[in-house]
Amino acid sequence: EITGPVSRKMVINALNAGAKVFMADFEDSNAPSWSNNIEGQINLRDAINKTISFENPRNGKKYKLNEDIATLMVRPRGWHLEEASIVVDGQAISGGLLDFGLYFFHNAKTLIKNGSGPYFYLPKLENHLEARLWNDVFVFAQDYIEIPQGTIKATVLVETITASFELNEILFELRNHSAGLNCGRWDYIFSYIKRFRNHSSFVLPNRDQVTMNVGFMEAYSKLVIETCHKRGIHAMGGMAAQIPIKNDEAANNAAILKVYHDKLNEVENGHDGTWVAHPGLVKVAMDVFNQFMPTKNQIDKKLDLNISESDLLATPAGTITEEGVRKNINVGILYIESWLQGNGAAAIYNLMEDAATAEISRTQIWQWIKHECTITDGRTITLKMCNDFIEDELLEIEKYVGKERFEAGKFTLATTLFRDLIEENELEEFLTIKAYTHLK
Question: Which of 336, 345, 387, 410 lies in disulfide reach of 29, CB 3.0 to 4.6 Å?
Fold first, then answer.
């Protein structure tokens, strides 16, 4: 499966990429401005009606759909995000309900007529009650347009630590609409930090040390596989964030190799499919799964691992370095600035980043300061240290993006938001809630 935002060019390229599924994203890779949201709905409607096309205004290159395209799935916003542009009884409505409702109402019957259906990804679920709420929405929606119950299918992203403790319950609530579970690995790390933020025994090391092979991450991914296969449904692997690197063959080969080993690990563990973020990575992921999973899926591969609660909570060993602190600051500010510009899928240092990256970056800094963690040279991480690093990293960011782009951008606002997020006594639940008021 390939994922990406709902911009017109991306929709065409992703549907044409050779993947089995395109997950069109109104959530973490979409900055939810009104124009992004509504243009995204128009783009998906046009794609479903096979009328979509795009011409690049800079070079005149034209894009259109191939004959053979991916199956479309849609990820609405999570329950935590509101849509401020529509107010009912004095309250902003749920962003997720808007995304789901517009897409479903305008496209469900056309999708069915085309031999497909209204298929969704559900993000950020914390527990079975949130799954029940989505199920209630599905039941109501299907009755409203008079299509059979169970026509809607949805895969749940397991990207919160609390959801890992309710996998069976979540699947039960969605049993008539479930298409499986998916390991939303980056948000899962963010959730782990956020939920245990006040406990010094749950401090994570540098972000790049928290891989899928560390204890709590491996336990969670295998528990997803075990649970799904026990229930006879698909367990999807997580996102490969790498993107092809132009004009540097060695770096590009290294990136492709990382994706290969990541996908090899997933298929050997028992996953039935996986995610990539760029059309250029579809082939390597597909080749790995075709070689090591010649059948349609591995649902017959039953696991009996006895994964315990303590396995899901085990904090990995590792180190915090000055480089790790600086990298969180640098990437966090870069992403927030991109988001404020209306771009929720940002290519940063040869990785395709979405909101989860910035969430990890700012929550780690907040937690490291709160618990007076030390970096490898013995210095304690303080707010003053981080503010000093911010000044240094802004100079590095200016070099990276160029002076003209830096001065024309929203880096002052992004920096202010980042500082606020790491300075607050109480950790902000989602940075996107705080930043949403600044979106035009």
Answer: 345
- Secondary-structure percent of the chain, ordered helix, strand, coil, rounded to 5: 50, 15, 35
Query: What is the CB neighbour count within 10 angstroms for residue 398?
Result: 15
Which residues participate in catalysis according to the annotation? 75, 354
Contact 225, 183 (CB under 8 A): no
Q: What is the pLDDT of residue 170?
A: 99
What's the rounded Cα separation, in Å, for the pair 301 and 18? 26
Read off the pLDDT of residues 348-401 as tens digits, 9 standing for 90 and up.
999 999 999 999 999 999 999 999 999 999 999 999 999 999 999 999 999 999
Task: Check if the beta carbon of residue 300 is closer than 8 Å to that of residue 264.
Answer: no
C-alpha pair distances (Å), 300 with each of 183, 272, 419: 19, 10, 49
Give helix then strand counts, H and E, for the chain.
Answer: 16, 14
Adjacent-strand bridge partners of 83: 93
**Where along the chain do its domains lie?**
2-312, 319-436
CA separation for the pair 214, 422 (Å, rounded): 26
Please tell me the distance from the alpha carbon of residue 26 to that of residue 86, in angstroms, as a whole number: 16
Give the number of other CB atoms < 10 A from CB of residue 157.
Answer: 25
| Superfamily of chain region 319-436 | Malate synthase, domain III (1.20.1220.12)
User: How do residues 220-272 score in pLDDT, each as one tens digit?
Assistant: 999 999 999 999 999 999 998 899 999 899 999 999 999 999 999 999 999 99
Closest C-alpha among 69, 76, 66 to residue 24:
76
- Cα–Cα distance list, 347 to 236, 267, 278, 390 (Å): 24, 27, 10, 21
pLDDT for res 241: 87
Which parts of the chain register pLDDT below 50?
none
Sign of CA dihedral 226, 229, 233, 235: positive
> Is there a contact between 155 and 181 (Cβ–Cβ < 8 Å)?
yes
Q: Is the domain covering 2-312 a CATH 3.30.360.10 domain?
A: no
Q: What amino acid occupies position 145? A: I
pLDDT computed for residue 440 by the predictor: 75
